[in-house]
Amino acid sequence: MTTPSGGSTPDDYWRRPDTGDDAVADQPPAAPATTPPTGPTSQPPTGPSNPPPSEHAGPAPTGSTSGYSGPPPSLPPPAGWRPPVHLQPAPPRQLPPQDMADLDAVEQRSQRVTYGFGAAAGVVLLVLLCLLCSRVIF
């Protein structure tokens, strides 16, 4: 892990940037400015000294506390536009009719089997509990 240079504290990474004159007191002193190199090797700037501000760097709209101005406007598709259809699915088949009386009888049988397994498990646990208690008592 590298340590920050200058007079900054480890908490500076998590602090918000300056929002006004009040925030200056919380910040550490600024690092000294470096002087630009002078001499015949430096080339003069070729572009404008102050480039025009981009649309993203402008101030936030009034009444908003963030720089986000919302999603870009979207254009609706042309009227009648649909995605291309490559395959037509087959129409759904007819399901067989259900015998409700037979379904009720099958559900009752399965409920009896479930209750039977539960009763058998309960009897086994009761026998084990009795054996455990008899060992403790005697």
From TrEMBL:
<protein>
    <recommendedName>
        <fullName>Translation initiation factor 2</fullName>
    </recommendedName>
</protein>
<feature type="transmembrane region" description="Helical">
    <location>
        <begin position="115"/>
        <end position="137"/>
    </location>
</feature>
<feature type="compositionally biased region" description="Pro residues">
    <location>
        <begin position="70"/>
        <end position="81"/>
    </location>
</feature>
<feature type="compositionally biased region" description="Pro residues">
    <location>
        <begin position="29"/>
        <end position="54"/>
    </location>
</feature>
<keyword id="KW-0472">Membrane</keyword>
<keyword id="KW-1133">Transmembrane helix</keyword>
<feature type="compositionally biased region" description="Low complexity">
    <location>
        <begin position="58"/>
        <end position="69"/>
    </location>
</feature>
<feature type="region of interest" description="Disordered">
    <location>
        <begin position="1"/>
        <end position="104"/>
    </location>
</feature>
<keyword id="KW-0812">Transmembrane</keyword>
